[in-house]
User: What shape does this take?
Amino acid sequence: MFDYSKEFEAIAKAYEASGGNAQDLFDKKTASLVVSHHKILFQNSIPGVNIEGEEIQNGVRAKIVIEPGTVVKDPVHLCFGVIPAEGVQEITSEFEIGERSRVSFIAHCSFPNAIKLKHVMDSKIYVGRNAEMIYTETHYHGKDGGIEVLPVTKAVIDEGGMLRSEFKLIKGAVGRLDLDYEGTLEKSAVCEFDTKVYGKGDDKVLVKESLFLNGENSRGLAKSRIVATERRVSEVIGEAVGSAPNARGHVDCVEIIKGKESRVSAVPKLLVVDDRAKLTHEAAIGSVDKKQVETLMARGLDEDEAVDIVVKGLLR
Amino acid sequence: MLKLINIELNLNGKRILYDINLEVRKGEIHSILGANGTGKSTLSSVIMGLSGYQPTAGRILLNEEDITNLPVYERARRGITLGWQEPARFEGLTVAHYLKISQKFSGDGVLTPRECLLKVGLPPELYLSRAVDGTLSGGERKRIELASVLAMKPKLAILDEPDSGIDSLSIDHIVDVIKTFSRTGSAVLLITHHEEVAAIADRASSLCDGTIVKTGEPQAVAKFFRNHCEECPHVNQPEEEVMKNV
Assistant: This one.
């Protein structure tokens, strides 16, 4: 049986290792939700930001509501972690961002000891009219790749709304990642998905980002930056459907491969069903750009140092 | 300080450079004039040691040390660097970080990143935290490249057309920066199309069809270039008449 009395300390330590400031998690002035495995360690609502968490069998169900017109000054902190080496964590979340409100979320997911662990994130997001939501999720994994991360997000961005979502998994072994993000955009809505993953060892990565540009003048960007080393396999699917006048979508994928046994692929999938919509895509997959590396080498860095700088920049 | 002795480069069976003999002295500005396609940028790649540009014959000496077979970074650590004609872009790398990288192997007396930006006419407060990526215009990126070379305080700066893509009003500014290299003891190998920029050099050489056809006072070389090269229809095949008169 895991000792939950030490859970606060362990989760705070893992949170800091992932780049967060643990003090923010337990600050009463800041809205937050801290979950360890299937236990809610801390949750805090503030005026205009209501967080309701409920423990379920293998995880937590959470509903986060931002009241209309609320401008949330400090980011809402979310922390999901599992300290034991094995288990399943299922987080089911629902975000409701009221019209004209503005909020940003900083989420950290920490699994420092994972050997046989599954982390399932199932999120539904509704961004109301003229509301703005920024969501940044950073993962921190241990050196063993015994983890499966399965984040699924279905977002609807209403008229004039904006969602900017960033997913970052660059510390520790990835394990198996199967990310599936989908944004449905109404009139003049904006949606940006940005996924950054650094895989090593036997990691397997599948990233799927989809944009459904249903509203007139809607704008979407599906961006991914993947680095694959050793025996890593990755596949990126960037999908956009333009079905409204002046809808604009762009799929932008860069995958760097290092190591003879790695494999990377990029599949853009664009569909236009309105003759006034426009979709574009660009993909660069393969080795690190020679000119970038030689530029840095011409300043004195050796090849490994130069590649490291290029890769870190790409994933920053 | 830098000596190229009988440098020759063949790529895919084609002769690109041949019989290149050139000396760049300590602290001097040496211009290389030449029309498009005559081998100017190739020459800079050979000196820097970029991949694919290993000379087929000849030697490169830096302060009498043979560096012909040294990798790029070893040449850089000995004080040679290159400012690219079309500099690379880097996602996620800030201007401040990019300029600091240049100083990793520099000695004392280097300018700060802030000072380097001021020298090239870019306000530090607007640029230090920006990324060296596609959000910069071509002219901004060129200036940052120049600042990066300046930050390194090299013994030899190879500047490949630092004046191209720069608006005409700013050319004087770029010329001042090039003079700064010389004032602080760096030699400059300056590749340019512009005679007025080449004129700031102590000496100049004109390149035609992969070889140096004239070296001397910048004015004399510029005149030669004007009379023989600007209108030359055989960029990669110089007229025999021209060669006879060299």
Observations:
- The interface with chain B takes residues 225, 254, 289-292, 294-303, 306, 309-310, 312-316 of chain A (CB under 8 Å).
- Residues 4-315 of chain A form one domain.
